[in-house]
Amino acid sequence: MSSAELASGGRQNVFGYVMRLIARVPFLVVGGRLYGAEDLGRFAYATMTVEFAAALALVGLKRGLALALARARQPETHVLADAALLTVGAGGAIGAILFLFPGLMFPSGLRFEAERFLALLVVLIAILDLLLSGLAFHRRIGVQVMSRSLVEPWAISIAAIALYYTPLQPVGLLCAYALALVAASVVAWIPAVREFGLPRGWRPSGRRLSAMLKENLPVAGADVIDWTTRRLDLFILGRLAAPEVVGIYYVAQQVASLAGRLRTSFDPILAPLLSQALARGARAEAAAHLAQVGFWVITFQLCVVMMIGVAAEGTMGLFGPAFAGGGVVLVLLLLAELAASQASIAESALIYTRRIVNLAVSLVALGVEAVVAVWLSPVWGGAGAATGLLAAMVLMAVTKQVLLVRTLGTDVPMWRLSILVCAVPAFAYGWATRSLPSEAFHMFATGFGLPLIFLGLMWRFGFSDADRVLLRRQGRERGR
């Protein structure tokens, strides 16, 4: 497996990331300016709860499915059917709890009785993620790009605008969310059925299901803890602050997560390559994959972090006057995303090699986040919650990198000195643009000039030929 194969899969999802960025920003603008911070805060907390329930329902199979398929102990359709049965069972049980106790989704109470039906989306989300993981194992990365990065974000933005002018306006954001997920699921189901076919001859087996569940529980724990670590700040803030504060924090979180999605762009191609390399005992090959992806992700993510962070106040102001004060929160969340990337890439291998230790590290980090966020949120508001997340991410990044190196027996150099050297002049330029007389001019100069300077210097002085293959289409053909 060469850098070209990683580049091919990553390039498709980086394209998807750009498309998701273009589509997600209009939704945040619509949510902030049309619906307001309070409605956006209720939407944020409710959808966070539903997505957490879906993460629980997957019982680790979002990443564990690749290893189950790689072992080929039974036909792939049967493996997928077992995984789907586990997911539907877990998702149905968790969704029923949310339906019966809607206060878990809406701490301030239901506005309409129909809002409790949001719980039905738990199974839909979990099965969608499961199918996309199965398709990614067969390098069908384009389906995820189409489903999650094109159809879903554009559908939610268009639906939110349309529903605002209908009697459904009070629940317009929630209805738009449901419609977008249905559209994304349709896009994923069709190629999944064509790729895997129907599970003919499959029969449920309690023994197989128990074995699959037991094997994936450590991965499930790591996935849930990682997910919780990234949402605990919003949960704590939702319990300690008004919906308006939660709405402002949610916008900052969504903008910051656009940088984090650069990392997840490589997950669909990295998971099968790592699982196959580790199954063969090729740890040096796995380390090379991780180092290459880590360098790509950190380079481009640092570019986005500087570009957005330097113009943080202006960026938040795009969503309405009430959001402009969230600039400090946005900067803290951007730094947390940068640290989270290194931790997550290291974890991509640790979930296969050191599951229990990886889980323990994540639990400690989760505890640190909870303590810091609860301590600082009443004093600093959103900035306190973001500081808790940043502390947890830095702890995980350092600890898991050390653990990864010891596990694989070789260095995994994701950071290189060239990244920092090239970042200095780019950041200096971005900071200098803050003196421009107009905020619009400042954002324009930063948005175009800073990445041009940084990536231009990296292309000339920081990238090797193996690194440049990510941005060259011919890399895909060479990797075939």
General description of the model:
- The chain is mainly alpha-helical and 480 residues long.
- It contains 18 helices and no strands.
- The chain is globular.
Topology:
Layout: H1 3-57, H2 61-71, H3 76-100, H4 121-137, H5 141-164, H6 172-196, H7 206-240, H8 243-264, H9 267-279, H10 283-310, H11 312-317, H12 327-353, H13 355-380, H14 382-408, H15 417-432, H16 439-462, H17 465-468, H18 474-478
Helix pairs in contact: 1-3, 1-4, 1-5, 1-7, 1-8, 1-9, 2-3, 2-4, 2-7, 2-9, 3-4, 3-7, 4-6, 4-9, 5-6, 7-13, 7-14, 8-10, 8-12, 9-10, 9-12, 10-12, 10-15, 10-16, 12-13, 12-14, 13-14, 15-16
What is the residue-averaged pLDDT? 85
The secondary structure category is mainly alpha
Q: What overall form do the CA principal axes indicate?
A: globular
Task: Provide the domain count.
Answer: 1
DSSP summary: helix tally: 18
Biggest sheet overview: none
Residue share in β-strands: under 5%
* Cα radius of gyration in angstroms: 22 Å
Labels describing this entry:
single chain, 480 residues, mainly alpha, globular, disordered C terminus
Summarize the structure.
This protein is mainly α. It has helices spanning 3-57, 61-71, 76-100, 121-137, 141-164, 172-196, 206-240, 243-264, 267-279, 283-310, 312-317, 327-353, 355-380, 382-408, 417-432, 439-462, 465-468, 474-478.
